[in-house]
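Structure in, sequence out. Go:
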C-alpha cells in the first residue's frame, strides 16, 4: 500500500537549553510515535511557528497540528494563516488531527470558544473518558490515560462537531467533525522523560498543589500509543 503523505504543522520551536536542546521537537515526537506502528507515513514538516502553512491542500494526504506552549488566544505571526488553513481543510473535508494547541486552534477557527481554565494549569496524566466511539477508534477503549499540559481549553464546540471525550478537568477533551476532523486536548506523543523535564522547567509558574498533583498522576501508565493508533486509523479511513 502506498504510504500516506502526512503534513505536520509545527506550532512550537523551543529554543531553551533545558528542553529544546535536550529533546526532539513536537513534529519528531509524533513521528517517533507513529513509526512504532506497522503502517508508516511519508512526512513533510511545515514550520508553522514561522508562518509556513501548505499553500495547496493536495500537497499532502492528511495533516496534523501539534501542541505548543503558546496560547491560541494570543495573536501570533502565524495565527491568521493557520485559521485560514483549518477552514480550508474543513471545507474540503481534508483529514486533519489536532493535539492540545492544535485541538484548540481547530475549535476556534471553526467558530467554537477557547478560554483560560478557572482551575489553572492542568498537568500530568489524566484519563480521557470517551462517551462516543467512531469506527477508527480501534483497539476499543472507553478511557485513555494520557499526558496533559495546558491552561487554555475549549469551552464551546463549533457547530457540526461532536464531543467524543471528556476528562476530570476538561469537559471538551476530544471532538470530531464528520469523518475529516479528530482532536485531543492531550499529548499522546509525550514520553515520561520529556514530561518530567518540561514540568521541572515550568513548575516555578505553578502553585505547589498543581505540581504535587501533576507528579502524583505521573505514576500511572499512559496509553498515548493507543490514541496514535486511532489517529493512524482515522487517516487511513479517508482513503
Amino acid at each position: 500500500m502506498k504510504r500516506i503523505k502526512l503534513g505536520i504543522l509545527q506550532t512550537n520551536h523551543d529554543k531553551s537549553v533545558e528542553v529544546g536542546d535536550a529533546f526532539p521537537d513536537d513534529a519528531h515526537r509524533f513521528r517517533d510515535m507513529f513509526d512504532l506502528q506497522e503502517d508508516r507515513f511519508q512526512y513533510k514538516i511545515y514550520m508553522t511557528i514561522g508562518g509556513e502553512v501548505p499553500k495547496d491542500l493536495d500537497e499532502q494526504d492528511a495533516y496534523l497540528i501539534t501542541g505548543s506552549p503558546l496560547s491560541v488566544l494570543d495573536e501570533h505571526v502565524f495565527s491568521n494563516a493557520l485559521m485560514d488553513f483549518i477552514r480550508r481543510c474543513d471545507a474540503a473535508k481534508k483529514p486533519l488531527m489536532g493535539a492540545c494547541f492544535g485541538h484548540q486552534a481547530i475549535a476556534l477557527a471553526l467558530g467554537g470558544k477557547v478560554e483560560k481554565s478557572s482551575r489553572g494549569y492542568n498537568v500530568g496524566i489524566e484519563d480521557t473518558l470517551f462517551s462516543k466511539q467512531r469506527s477508527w477508534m480501534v483497539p476499543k477503549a472507553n478511557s485513555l490515560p494520557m499526558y496533559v499540559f495546558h491552561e487554555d481549553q475549549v469551552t464551546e464546540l463549533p457547530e457540526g462537531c461532536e464531543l467524543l471525550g471528556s476528562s476530570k478537568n476538561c469537559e471538551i477533551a476530544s471532538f470530531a467533525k464528520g469523518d475529516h476532523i479528530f482532536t485531543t486536548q492531550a499529548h499522546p506523543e509525550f514520553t515520561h522523560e520529556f514530561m518530567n523535564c518540561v514540568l521541572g522547567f515550568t513548575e516555578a509558574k505553578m502553585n505547589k498543589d498543581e505540581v504535587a498533583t501533576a507528579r502524583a498522576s505521573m505514576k500511572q501508565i499512559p496509553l498515548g500509543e493507543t490514541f496514535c493508533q486511532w489517529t493512524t486509523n482515522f487517516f487511513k479511513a479517508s482513503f
